[in-house]
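Q: I have 493 residues here and want to know how they pack in 3D. Can you give me a structure?
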Amino acid sequence: MEYKYQNSVDDFRVKYTLVIPDDAEAKNPLTEKEQKFLDDLNDAYDEIENLTNQADGYDYALAVSSGIIAGLIDSFWVGEWDFRKAKGKASEEIAKKIVAYAKKHSGYAKWCDGVDKTGKWIKRKPDSHISAVEFLEELYVLPGDTGWNFAGSGVSPTSHRLDDFCHHPTLVGMISCIIVQFTGTAKYHPSSGEIITLPVTVNKYGNFVSDKAFGKVFAGIINWFFNVAKTLKNRKGHLISDMAGSISSVKVGNDGAGIPGTVMSTLKELSALPCFQDTAFAENLRKAFQNGIGSGKSQLDLGVFNNLFDGASSKFDMRTELAIKKELKRQAIPVVINEIVVRAFFFIRRFIEQMRVKRSLMEIEWKRLLPVNNRTIVRMMTVASGTFCAVDIGDAAIRAGIESCGNVAAFGGKFILRVNFVGIGRFTIAVGADLYMAARKGRMELAIASGEVANTALLEKKIIQEVAEINDNTDTKIEKMKAATADVSNLKF
């Protein structure tokens, strides 16, 4: 049995392990309470070791080198934030998705080669997202779509998808669709903070199909999902068509209001709660969704961050959220490379060190090789990500200074386009984890220090027991030697 112990003398920490033979442990057992106390201390010492930074010069050198390489990759390969290009890809991706969903409906092909609402024969292009939007919008009408045109309601055609939770691609959105079936009214939450309740007109897919609760729940879900039989695939009928905006805006090529993404939807839903209700916050959400981000009239002005949304429509709907995600994914590439290099070095170096000592894979302590959940790798990632941010920000400042030609106002806009936000976020997380481990280690050392007296007493008891055992064995051996000596002296030759 092994018992770990450490003590401090003149700020010099001594750590040692007392090894008790199993036979002595059996003859002089501790009480259950004493045994639990020592076991808990052993676990605490193991965790303190895990929370102790053991990185050396080689570890720090690798972390810094990796951060510099990742910073250079970000500078020369990732480059500048490009919202216009990302927004174009996002809109194209959504258009293809709408067409793909429409084609899965058995009646889409016939509808494309049929008659319009006036009875006139018309030939539509099945691969056009305009045709797909029109088909889905006619087929899957949300009950609240006919309520926003009430005069004086405070809800407009461009904001109703934000104010009506039924249009939100969230769990709250689906629940709202179900509630409409029970109440027969649509509820809007405009930026004024006043909840507006209006009667709705539902189509054949939204009628109260049953007097039973299950039937109403079914009707609400089928309105929100494209195909109830395959809800796990998230085939949203009306929400899919609304991604590109209403058919009236799509036909003329305008960037009409689409549906809010998950971020905007969640923020809007929170703003409607009594504990979070803030009229100014809700109004800013409306401005961002309806008019976009910028310094223009009725837009949400974010100052220097407005430059991130230049070059394309900045209305903060699902398309804009998707464009931002695409740019963040691009920025994440050097951050991920930095992460992989540092963690791989940690594992390989410690694997080689253990193989030199253990000489066998069966004896390797694999837990100590894993580059996770220990202070050493956390410190290395803090250094690596901090170096990456230093290189990235330095590069952004130099390039912005050259491009702005001394214009202070232009410098901020150019600078923000070069900053890697994913890298800053990773560095913040690394610093937070490092500080948390340091605080936890301090608390555990304090807790152990308060029990060191009792620990010492238990260890002394073990030592005394072991010494007594050794003395007993020694006395027995001496007696045997005396008897043997007496026998030898009595021998006659």
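Q: Anything worth noting?
A: Residues 226-237, 487-493 have pLDDT under 50 and may be disordered. DSSP finds 18 helices and six strands in the chain.
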